[in-house]
Amino acid sequence: MTDGYETALAEDDGAKLTSGDLAEAREPIALFSKWLAEAIESEPNDPTAMALATIDEAGLPDARMVLLKAHDAEGFVFYTNLGSEKGRQLAAQPKAALLFHWKSLRRQVRVRGNVEAVTEDEADAYFASRPRLARLGAWASRQSEPLESRFALEQRVARYAARYPAGTIPRPPFWSGYRLVPAEMEFWRDGAFRLHDRMRFTRGDDGGWTKVRLYP
Description:
alpha+beta, Pnp Oxidase, Chain A, nine-stranded antiparallel beta sheet
């Protein structure tokens, strides 16, 4: 006969420490793709949003939300103004961490690793796919610099709209992307009574992955 705790634990899928995809996964990228696809179906807003943590010149951590634009076995891609705070920090310290949190699924994924620039072709292709106003905004924004007024920003957007009234808007030389190459990925799933499910994957020198289950 089980008590209330054991019954609740048995009925909570998130608390089954040997259950499903976490226990069966041999490498983390396919598992991440599966979880992201499920988040796209369930999250009400921005399932590709991720916290990006970098290190500033004083050695202090810094973090902000950005959007994941691509991912595969090579890494996780995002784009930004290279003169922004994160751009300057990554130029000086090309290491970063990502955090995805999907509240609707009660899951999160942490990623850490080195950061490298995407290719010019990748950056050009993604920039060309953006809405026209977003492309103009990339030209107009001096990201992370002081802004005297909202009107000043709107004036700059209007100036670039006049410069590029139709046709192709080229990618600014100060705007590109980064790829975080994962050295470590950790998957977390909420469990009853705070007995969460955690699995860490670590990439070896040969490119293969090892995994270990962690205490919650």
